[in-house]
Amino acid sequence: CHSCGASFSSVVPYGYDREHPLCQKCCEKEKAAASAEPAPYDILTTKKLTGDWWGARTAMQDAGVDFAPMFISIFQQNFRGGANTHNGHDITGRFFYNAELDFEKMLGWRGATFFYRAVQEWNNGIGSDVGTTLAPYWGSGAPGNHFYGDSPYCILTDKWWYRQRLLDDRIEIRLGKLLNVVDLFDKNAVSGNYASAFMNRALNYSQTIPVAKGTGAFVKMWPTDWLYFQTAAVNADSRDSRCFDYERAFHGPAHYVGHWEFGLTPKFDSANGELPGNYRFGWWYNPRMRDVFMDTLGGLRAQQTESGDVGWYMSFDQMLLRENNDPKDAQGLGVFFRYGYAHGEINRIAHTWSVGTTYKGLIPRRDKDELGFGVAQCIESSQYRDEIDRRADRETVYELYYAIELTPWCIVTPDIQVITNPGGSQDARDALVGGVRAKITF
């Protein structure tokens, strides 16, 4: 049981969530608490800023409808070095409109849910001021990665999927508009949360994995509680602004980014309970056509192209210390490590790695705050260096953050990054980037 730690023998857990099953006693206790008279609204203790909507939100959740808007905004400034410090600051923002339908509650379809997210965002960050290939912030701040334009009034579909779990939650299937990294592959319990953990994208996922968001299918299987296999195919030619890019997904060449991953999820015993870990190994296939790095000698040599690229990665996270034996309390020390490889003939980044640690509840009476430090590096391919740019080397980021839970619905995160050789060039000036992020759950 996830709540009390007791063992129970029912084949189907009393609490439906397979990753956090509840015994009958705890399940009945949670149901009784849910049916109790709701507490008065308190802006300092409520989990969501807008509260329970005079009971409407709880009634909707009981009926299988959950709506949870979220706002993330970040101010960052390039204080020193990089490509530019004059007006080298920006405020980026994103509104997420998350909705989920639980078809088991609504229609009695066990294990069936539907998720939908719309998004609006503005400004594209300080990536061009730093001159970096490692975006200082996920989603915004990367040169050429401004998905939706400058207007904050444009609300577009970000992702959606139908999810079905089968065979006592041993199999999961998703169909819809999927994002391959962070959501499905190279996930990381310590560093993968871009909304409240590390800001720099290189510390969120392996930079050698080709990002794909579009129409696709995903399957995950758990033969045992400590082993899983998963695979997915995502449309490589999808236009990110489309809700359902039917024309490109089902007409013309079958261009799908393929993923395969297996993982071990052991739990090690300690004086204060189990220490969970995740050890992932994966590989990918990218059908997109890419130019081969070569010196064209003033155009006298024809540029070659290649497709069918493959690469691999590994991603580990492990909790090393728990402060207490409450399974619902995440206070403690965690570490992570990643490595990724891609062919250097057509990929500018051939190797990437990251390592770091986080500690939740380090300061007494600040149990939900989190301190984190990480290092990530992207190494330019030798062929790119030999054929295109002799000064190409590697880019490294050192990041330190402290996430402060002001209230359960508001997390503020001061952050500082030192980026050496921005853009991977030996001629670039090392940059010092500072910022603060605010996450508000409505």
Compose a concise summary of this entry:
The chain is mainly beta and 442 residues long.
Kindly describe this structure:
The protein is mostly beta strands and 442 residues long. 9% of the residues lie in helices and 44% in strands. The chain is built from six helices and 19 strands. Strands 1-2-3-4-5-6-7-8-10-13-14-15-16-17-18-19 form a 16-stranded antiparallel beta barrel. Strands 11-12 form a two-stranded antiparallel sheet.
Number of helices: 6
Could you say which structural class the secondary elements and strand pairing correspond to? mainly beta
Q: Using the alpha-carbon principal axes, give the shape.
A: globular
Please tell me the overall pLDDT.
87
Rg calculated over all Cα atoms:
23 Å
How much of the residues is beta strand, in percent?
Answer: 35-45%
Bin the helical content. under 10%
H/E topology pattern: HHEEHEHEEEEHEEEEEEEEEHEEE
Straight-line distance between termini: 30 Å
Secondary-structure topology with pairs:
Elements: H1 24-35, H2 56-62, E1 65-80, E2 89-102, H3 103-107, E3 112-122, H4 127-130, E4 156-166, E5 171-179, E6 213-224, E7 227-235, H5 246-250, E8 256-264, E9 267-268, E10 275-286, E11 290-291, E12 305-306, E13 309-322, E14 332-342, E15 349-360, E16 370-380, H6 382-387, E17 394-407, E18 410-420, E19 431-441
Antiparallel strand pairs: 1-2, 1-19, 2-3, 3-4, 4-5, 5-6, 6-7, 7-8, 8-10, 9-10, 10-13, 11-12, 13-14, 14-15, 15-16, 16-17, 17-18, 18-19
